[in-house]
Specification:
Layout lengths: L10 E4 L3 E4 L2 E2 L1 H9 L7 E7 L2 E8 L1 H6 L7 E3 L4 H6 L5 E2 L2 H10 L1
Helix pairs in contact: 1-4
Amino acid sequence: MITRHATSMAFVICQRHGGHVAPLLCPHLREAVHAGLPLSEIFYVEAWYLGDRAWSHHLCPSCAREIGVTDNSTIWKDDESLDRLMGIRDIAPVCPLCFDEAKAVA
């Protein structure tokens, strides 16, 4: 089970589930969710800024390795953490209910 600590500012309107505040996923996880495929291991990464939770992403193992994440859940509290997390390309929101359904398939 993945614990969601930081709040996403993203909002999606899903054709199946309506509008929701949405988690941010790497393109590989997002494509799997939309295709109804089982998800690989999911890494949760959270960045803090100025002493408070700022942003979080859910990443596949490949995207996690790309930014040096080896532990799930990872929380970065250093001053550069937000820049590192925001530097990941193609991060986008996905319906949280669709994401939960995809996690249940795995």
